[in-house]
Design a protein that fits this description.
This protein is α/β, with parallel strands linked by helices. The protein is built from 14 helices and eleven strands. Residues about 330-335 have low confidence and may be disordered.
Length: about 350
């Protein structure tokens, strides 16, 4: 799959843009573990123009994470054009336009998925951004605003006509938010349109290696984007690439390696911000990590882990989980099976 001159190889798997998740450290880790392309947290056009520090920091790219897409959102043509030019100076490989974020503070103000209620303006913004920069421009959006306005098949053509070089479709409407199931049949309908010639990337509910294979074999997409399933489990890209390359799941990373990755995330989050806020930032990853799912009588330990406010305390808890709690569960499970 190619986006402009950027060759992502056969059946690429990409890290989705996620606010407060896909910072530089997480992107690098996901890239090292197999992600073929990574996306930044989405960037507000208005905040970028006003030179807000917390926003401009999102433009930092490490050579090791490339190819990287910077994603912007906004509701005004001039602001999006100006922001696009600022982003281009940061030299990402791709500029992505967010027409899919469903949260109220974005969509409720007419940006993100809110643009699905004003298609003429969406297309005007897209054309203007494409004309304003020389790097490839892509779009990420949803099926439509609600169940009664699933317009994505026609919209995909219209966006293509604006000059974008790839389209990502999340298989839900804005009204669904993240509830229900992603509609991959609808994504397949977009791909089946013979007039659509740009690459189509599918997104939504991809949580296992088997689902990645199904997305390609059954629904025919050109690329797959993984979002929430990577939070607290960046090694999911390793597992997915193994399946795509060999047809089998292959061996998972050892438990010690997974804990090492989590510790690296914590340390790099602290280095990037400070100890207290760095740990606050990483709690979302710890809370979502499958490493801690299904551990019996884990409630008190989980609370302690998510309340720890310094690295030494948190590292001690993780060490106990890794070396005592999980091994004991494995021993008990093995004994039970033998009985």
């Amino acid at each position: 799959m190619k986006i402009g001159d950027i060759d992502l190889g056969n059946r690429p798997v990409m890290l989705a843009p996620m606010e407060d998740v896909t910072d530089l450290s997480f992107r690098l880790i996901c890239k090292e573990l197999g992600a073929d392309m990574v996306y930044t947290e989405f960037v507000s056009a208005e905040a970028l123009i006003r030179n807000i520090n917390s926003t401009t920091r999102k433009l930092n790219i490490d050579p090791g994470e490339r190819p990287t897409a910077i994603q912007i959102y906004g509701r005004e043509v001039d602001a999006m054009v100006e922001a696009a030019k600022i982003v281009e100076e940061a030299r990402p490989d791709i500029l992505d336009i967010n027409f899919g974020c469903p949260v109220k503070k974005v969509a409720g103000k007419g940006a993100g998925a809110g643009m699905l209620r004003d298609i003429p303006k969406m297309l005007e913004i897209t054309r203007a951004v494409v004309d304003a920069v020389k790097i490839p421009v892509t779009v990420k959006t949803r099926l439509g605003w609600d169940h009664n306005s699933k317009i994505i098949v026609e919209l995909a053509e219209q966006l293509q006509d604006c000059g974008i070089m790839a389209l990502t479709v999340h298989g839900r409407t804005r009204s669904q938010m993240y509830t229900g199931n992603a509609d991959w049949e609808m994504i397949a309908r977009v791909k089946e349109n013979p007039r659509l010639t740009i690459p189509l990337i599918g997104n939504g509910d991809i949580t296992t290696p088997e689902q990645v294979v199904e997305a390609y074999d059954r629904y025919g997409v050109d690329g797959v984007m993984v979002g929430r399933a990577s939070i607290g489990a960046p090694w999911i890209f390793h597992d997915m690439k193994q399946m795509l390359l060999t047809g089998e799941r292959g061996e998972e990373l050892p438990l010690a390696e997974k804990f090492k990755i989590l510790r690296r995330q914590i340390a790099e989050s602290i280095d990037r911000i400070d100890e207290y806020r760095g740990i606050l930032h990483i709690r979302r990853h710890l809370a979502a990590s499958p490493l801690f799912k299904g551990i019996p009588f884990f409630r008190d330990t989980r609370i302690a882990m998510l309340r720890a406010d310094n690295f030494a305390e948190l590292d001690e808890i993780l060490h106990r989980i890794e070396t005592e709690i999980i091994p004991n569960i494995q021993i008990l499970s093995s004994t039970s099976k033998n009985d």
